[in-house]
């Protein structure tokens, strides 16, 4: 039976049949990945992987409330299902009442493709990309550059079933491309990255051309002291800062006075955060950035609840025309705070600026800095959401609308909430890859931002 009954939806159904708990949620994640890596203008490795993870969430009703137990295992066979279910039930019986307990979600129409085989990726996803990468290698060699980087593609098919009748499925493709160009003596480095669903919309030769320009800018090197500079943040850097802001936007934490979105007696919902007409939003159906249209929660935490699994997600404005409109909540934390139910969604879009490109914003700059990306971002103060981190792979001096050279790297200290309030210009919104968070969050569209006084708190000697 183990060999015969192995389809994800059958695994889900059998797990639910085995459950003796008062409630049960089963999440089967089928994952496949394909990747390419290269160094010094030559491919080094490539590979394809497959995997399955099964999560069982058992709920047990007691006199004092409902408890939950969660157990996850990889590569589970049919013979191993019953021990897994019993372990989840034992965990629930051994736990105290769950603070976030809610009735399991009901009434969501089943996904028509629930019983179909999982979607998969393979090396074929690189069929057009790989030859173009070879052309980029040839161009780089001819131009005296060395390219390093990787292309990664994965598809996760998630099957969600519950004892209340939900049968939902979501296929999530996710691709990332990161390329570093270096001068042969390693004194100059530039980075470019892209997010993609299928590698049909990324051009490695175009990235090489972009990197060649940046390496050219770096031929002239200048040293600048720490200080506050007019700074142009490219979309990747804006995404890294605002993704962290979203991760810090728990409605409950704000209501309890622990975050930048707190105020005496409540939250800052309704306050103006920016004079620019900026809208920060998420939408599971955003073209090119599609994400799960229902809650998938493998565990409970400040911003998610296993009891909300299957809850439908809808387009949500977190900030509208500069005004804070929503903070993330579960059904439980919404009840505690009086805020609307607003679960997190796995994409983020900032828009509402002008239509100028980053290059056009550079041309309109009298004197300032142009960043490439940020890294090693860490929180300093949750009350203000003060973050620190480093610039990386190119900080360039802009003078009279032109790039005149590369300057040293800096450590910065800034709050993304403050930056939204101080930004004087937002450009055209484009899809981008948050470099720092590319292992966790890739579906973003951001504009470049002009900040008149970005705080470069100290000089960094890193590359």
Description:
This protein is globular. It contains 9 helices and 22 strands. The longest helix has 14 residues, at 81-94. The termini are far apart. Helix 3 (129-142) packs parallel to helix 4. The strands form 4 sheets. It has a 6-stranded antiparallel β-sheet with strand order 3-2-1-4-5-6. The chain is of the alpha+beta class and 463 residues long. The protein has helices spanning 8-18, 81-94, 129-142, 204-217, 235-247, 251-255, 331-337, 358-363, 416-422; strands at 23-39, 42-62, 65-74, 146-162, 167-182, 189-196, 221-222, 227-233, 262-263, 266-267, 279-282, 316-320, 323-324, 348-351, 367-381, 386-399, 402-407, 409-414, 425-426, 430-432, 444-446, 449-460. Helix content is 20%, strand content 38%. A hairpin with a 2-residue loop joins strand 9 (262-263) and strand 10 (266-267).
